[in-house]
Amino acid sequence: xxxxxxxxxxxxxxxxxxxxxxxxxxxxxxxxxxxxxxxxxxxxxxxxxxxxxxxxxxxxxxxxxxxxxxxxxxxxxxxxxxxxxxxxxxxxxxxxxxxxxxxxxxxxxxxxxxxxxxxxxxxxxxxxxxxxxxxxxxxxxxxxxxxxxxxxxxxxxxxxxxxxxxxxxxxxxxxxxxxxxxxxxxxxxxxxxxxxxxxxxxxxxxxxxxxxxxxxxxxxxxxxxxxxxxxxxxxxxxxxxxxxxxxxxxxxxxxxxxxxxxxxxxxxxxxxxxxxxxxxxxxxxxxxxxxxxxxxxxxxxxxxxxxxxxxxxxxxxxxxxxxxxxxxxxxxxxxxxxxxxxxxxxxxxxxxxxxxxxxxxxxxxxxxxxxxxxxxxxxxxxxxxxxxxxxxxxxxxxxxxxxxxxxxxxxxxxxxxxxxxxxxxxxxxxxxxxxxxxxxxxxxxxxxxxxxxxxxxxxxxxxxxxxxxxxxxxxxxxxxxxxxxxxxxxxxxxxxxxxxxxxxxxxxxxxxxxxxxxxxxxxxxxxxxxxxxxxxxxxxxxxxxxxxxxx
Amino acid sequence: xxxxxxxxxxxxxxxxxxxxxxxxxxxxxxxxxxxxxxxxxxxxxxxxxxxxxxxxxxxxxxxxxxxxxxxxxxxxxxxxxxxxxxxxxxxxxxxxxxxxxxxxxxxxxxxxxxxxxxxxxxxxxxxxxxxxxxxxxxxxxxxxxxxxxxxxxxxxxxxxxxxxxxxxxxxxxxxxxxxxxxxxxxxxxxxxxxxxxxxxxxxxxxxxxxxxxxxxxxxxxxxxxxxxxxxxxxxxxxxxxxxxxxxxxxxxxxxxxxxxxxxxxxxxxxxxxxxxxxxxxxxxxxxxxxxxxxxxxxxxxxxxxxxxxxxxxxxxxxxxxxxxxxxxxxxxxxxxxxxxxxxxxxxxxxxxxxxxxxxxxxxxxxxxxxxxxxxxxxxxxxxxxxxxxxxxxxxxxxxxxxxxxxxxxxxxxxxxxxxxxxxxxxxxxxxxxxxxxxxxxxxxxxxxxxxxxxxxxxxxxxxxxxxxxxxxxxxxxxxxxxxxxxxxxxxxxxxxxxxxxxxxxxxxx
Lengths: 551, 509
Known about the structure:
- The complex is a heterodimer.
- By secondary structure, chain A is an alpha+beta fold.
- Chain A is built from 16 helices and 28 strands.
- The longest helix of chain A has 17 residues.
- Chain B is α+β, with helices and mostly antiparallel strands.
- Chain B has four domains: about 80 residues, Arc Repressor Mutant, subunit A; about 110 residues, Winged helix-like DNA-binding domain superfamily/Winged helix DNA-binding domain (Arc Repressor Mutant, subunit A); about 30 residues, no CATH class; about 260 residues, Bira Bifunctional Protein, Domain 2 (BirA Bifunctional Protein, domain 2, 2-Layer Sandwich).
- In chain B, strands 9-13-14-18-17-16-15 form a seven-stranded mixed beta sheet, with helices on both faces. A three-stranded antiparallel beta sheet of chain B has the order 5-1-6.
- In chain B, a hairpin with a 4-residue loop joins strand 16 and strand 17.
- The mean pLDDT of chain B is about 90.
- At the A-B interface, helix 2, helix 8, helix 10, helix 11 and strand 19 of A face helix 14, strand 9, strand 10, strand 11 and strand 13 of B.
- Strand 21 of chain A pairs antiparallel with strand 11 of chain B, so a sheet runs across the interface.
């Protein structure tokens, strides 16, 4: 979630109300953002991804002005025609096919405002723009531009201009290779043979989206009063929404918004369109969902508190609110306006029958028996080190592997528990002995029969680690477990590279393989740096439960 | 006094008779026929009962070191030097040969003896040394140092008289002649109480220490008295078998939901993106789906998804289908639906549960306490593998007030009386809320989990009907860590055996 920092004084001004910090904090939180802190004149907060319109001082101030009741209802934004147009050439079709554009005049930029504009642009890029992939925004002083503007794609070698934050002319390829912004976002263009540019009637390059503006025509200063704004990307609707968020913010700063004709061949679109969207209000549905019984007039009042308009049973949704796609979204805004704290906590008297998962219950029984033996239960992660699972156990295994592990020590899902227990014994070998421990946990095996390609079973493993631990001691515990469950088992000699040959057995219950038991091989102990004998068993509880049910 | 006498331990009884004659631990042990440690234990107990006064004194003893032993036998080097030239002046090489002194010792002797005017140098082809009258006087009798060396060591440093002290100081400046060490001695002296006990007598043939099967079988116990114990004494620690303390807490949490009539859900940790994300209406270009937040499985790579349901959900994403929603209006990729991952939330189990529900099963309530995975760097407050407490209420009459009610009930039972819900955001719930509890020590609201009512875009394709489903996914580790006074959340799962043995039980009544 993006974090923004806004100026408290400016917010209060936009809100039209002075509030002490503790009340302001409450309002900001209950409006639906994650407030980090109010420190001096700075408010730091996280904005939820569904509300990109709050990513600016103006956006937040606007929402708070309605929410605190100072300036409620739908805000009107006038859009006049600028008479300018942007001609979109077919050459951009493959690389970045769409743009939505606008002109804003009458701006009074100071350094604070410029910083603010850059912050909005950046935050929208990261969130709504999905790191410029879905949408990138360019803002240019109008004074240097000769209309009309063309949006077209050119071979990168033929694109030549001085980019921002550079002091020499570069071509498209050089920008991707040598310019810091080019290196960061170059991956969005590098596979295309032509790169998109906005270019004016004098043939001056304004920018190469989504990378960088031209220094000559694309640098906002505190003298700038009129700007040309474009959003470029792959989905025209998304671009229009993004443009709306920017121009309404600039309008709230005091700017006048003018539309442009965006010409796609024979088709002409006029952007921006700041007319509110309309959605019918289903008050019964909303009341039911919220457990309220609010009347239409109250609903109207609550909607207005959230910046909506309401006429003739229809909600007028401001052009910057891109998140309203269903009645439930209106329900949430009504709930916020009503105040989450005002919903009375109720538990309905509905009778349902509780039910405990049998495998969980079964595991708990096993736990009781083992704790009765004085064993200590440990709890390891399911993510594990492949070296611990295989190499250190002298074993080769087909493991479920993680594509993007956070570290090498957690690169697979564990396929058995004993290695995890040996790892614990290694880590704490200086703690007081005996180290008789057990774990009940899930293991993961590649299995194409499963929908997920992975079989997950619950198992229990016991390791006895003390000077006297041996096969007899571990078998005593295993026997007690089988007796406790009233089960007969058979054990057969087997070979397993992790155990001492001749001291390891494989166990079946009702003809189903369920366990291994034996003394851990000294070579394995050495791999875990252990100087104490270990006897262990590992028992599959999922299979055992099935076997018991068959019985 | 009677009671004190009755409580006397056999060891105490053994040392006590000797205490009027002996005060030194060694001596007492010897007389009582005990090991020194046993006698010490007995004296310690007696001292605790104020029967004796136990004092520790330390003294510094002086002992000859290796050169000291040598010089005691052969005399000090400077004396040997003087004696060698007593008859006639000798060259240095001759002195060396005659005395057996080392180069270094001869050099030191030259210095010392010259400063005492005991020798004169005779310069010739080779330097020779001659004794003076002063020198002859010096070897007439033993020096203070030599007298000192001949004493019986060890000597108590405290007790040295002036002359000895002079010699001691002079010798301790020289290499390896004498050494000192500290000896601690314990002395026990009877207190008035002790004297009284001794006078009264404490021998009692009838007193037995241990109750044995033989005593019981023979009935001899009837003729005996049992020694009274000091029941306040500390006993050695005994460990017991234990469930993991996190599992203790999980049991408690499961019980809370079971008591409220919730059924337990189970499911796999490896899931397809379809169930974990798509079915929950998380848009396919949502930032949380990127590699840095979610663990993806490299092998095996793809899973199977239910085709018919997947088609429905694709429609919902692309255009809202019959849910009354606009949808995300983004192209939906079936192939990325099949991507395998480690479940990012147990909400995936809720989706799978709803998909299996029939209309006649309603109303229905489900919960689970299960592991979820987040690809985050581990630090004191973050884990990449952690638990989530999940719950859903599928009820045509459910509403936001009920959601708050269930959560309030849960947190009250977990010991958090001050809980608040504030607006939040999740792609699959609307309204959404963050649940916070007030931390009385940190004096701030702490995030505990998320909740909301599932969007129709989630419920309708899975259940076939738009019915409100209350849902929550709550963190568990923070609450547990706080209960067990653990500040670094990683310590919950570090399996330190000492911590596991010593950890208190989860007691909430």
